[in-house]
User: Which sequence fits this backbone?
């Protein structure tokens, strides 16, 4: 029996993505002056595919049925941006871009938190009998 709806599970995965993105942006900002440091980014597509592949299981009704696997799983959705260089020391962190991405990620994270709070408030209302 599933305790929570698939909506809460999807929101949880969105929050996981947001946290990973926050870590990558924080590392980039912290290493803005580090020689030869290459900025990192988290791509939603690869993160989404990793999450879908990791948790998607088929229900086999017969032992002769094939295992269901969707694509190839990769263990990492963090990519390194190595095709650019903004600094004379080989560093490619653009602080303006990183700060804009940080603000965007914070808005995204807060929207997900607000939505998941709404889901839990709905559950709380149902448990209390609509009061």
Assistant:
């Amino acid at each position: 029996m599933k305790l929570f709806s698939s909506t809460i599970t999807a929101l949880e995965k969105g929050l996981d993505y947001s946290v990973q993105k926050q870590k990558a942006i924080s590392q980039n900002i912290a290493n803005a002056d580090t020689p030869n440091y290459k900025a990192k980014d988290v791509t939603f597509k690869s993160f989404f595919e990793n999450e879908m592949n990791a948790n998607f299981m088929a229900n086999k009704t017969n032992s002769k049925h094939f295992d269901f696997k969707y694509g190839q799983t990769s263990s990492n959705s963090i990519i390194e941006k190595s095709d650019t260089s903004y600094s004379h020391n080989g560093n490619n962190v653009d602080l303006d871009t990183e700060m804009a991405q940080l603000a965007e990620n914070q808005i995204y994270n807060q929207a997900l938190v607000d939505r998941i709070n709404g889901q839990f408030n709905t559950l709380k209302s149902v448990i209390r009998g609509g009061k």
User: Anything to note?
Assistant: Residues 50 and 75 are 7 Å apart (CA to CA).
